[in-house]
């Protein structure tokens, strides 16, 4: 039985150096993933702007509600109820960018 008292490692909340290292590495991966996700969202916004521009130029509406419902359903089916909120955010970011 160890007489050492576990103390939290600063900035991670971990109680051991090993756990702190694992958390630090995992956070680094999350930061990398977040950067890629942001880049993909920006790319999605640009593609959406092309679609909107072409739709409007051809006499259509900026937003296609049927398509948006398909997107919402897809995200909900893949990610559950929070997926719907994520899809709504993506749609909101992509509307009116032209």
Automatic annotation (TrEMBL):
One of its GO terms (biological process) is chorismate metabolic process. GO terms for molecular function: chorismate mutase activity. Residues 17-98 form the Chorismate mutase domain. It comes from the Bacteria. InterPro entries: Chorismate_II_sf (IPR036263), Chorismate_mutase_highGC-bac (IPR010958), CM_dom_sf (IPR036979), CM_II_prokaryot (IPR002701). PROSITE patterns: CHORISMATE_MUT_2. Gene3D superfamilies: Chorismate mutase. NCBIfam families: CM_M_hiGC-arch, PRK07857.1. This is Chorismate mutase.
